[in-house]
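idk why but the lab printer keeps eating my pages so im just putting this in chat instead. protein + thymidine-5'-phosphate:
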Amino acid sequence: MKKLEQIYEGKAKKVFATDNPDYVIVSYKDDATAFNGQKRGTIVGKGVVNNKVSNHFFKLLESKGIPPHYVKQLSDRETVVKKVSIVPVEVIVRNKAAGSFSKRMGVPEGSMLLCPVLEFSYKNDELCDPFFNSYYIRALGLATDEEIEKIEEYSFRVNDILSEYLKGFGVELIDFKLEFGRFHGDIILADEISPDTGRFWDIETGKKLDKDRFRRDLGNVEEAYREIIRRLMGE
Ligand code: TMP
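predcted complex ->
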């Protein structure tokens, strides 16, 4: 497959066209942003970790019947994925209170939740990704009822599969964000699942092994990303 011109550059990835109209190549960067791009920095080696960890998760999920955009890893930072049209909805699943949930609800971080929580926000940087619900999604024509149902079903299944899987490596999945896309009419899992987009805590100590170390200036940011890839993939 031939890598052609760059068609998009986001905060954490670049996307290139290929000679196959169904496929694009994503290239993961070390650039880190938080708070809708207000905080910027570099996490050395992050792109490699996120590329490999995302692909690792996507392969696991695919083996359990959840279709991802993942096609083939090309190198440490580059992967061929299906060219989807992104549904502009960020889906967050939470197992314990943290981050914006704790802030919004006045519940301390790490508090147990009686059941997993699924929430949506509108993927729109200009509006700072506002919190919304499925009525907004339907009313704005962003997805059909059937698509919303599929997205919810896949999101909870991803939660079950990854929570169980990570537990085996001494990692607790606190919460994570997913994005979905349309590919030839079907909803498939897109974007990435990585320490940038999920909260991973050490089960024993509660140590944060994710992007919160960057967001909150906790130090040892690179080490946390390396720790995740070491535990999951032995690298
Ligand atoms: P939050 O608690 O800040 O709402 O974040 C919930 C989860 O979603 C957390 O694992 C980080 C992830 N996330 C993203 O991937 N992108 C974002 O823009 C935000 C705000 C959160």
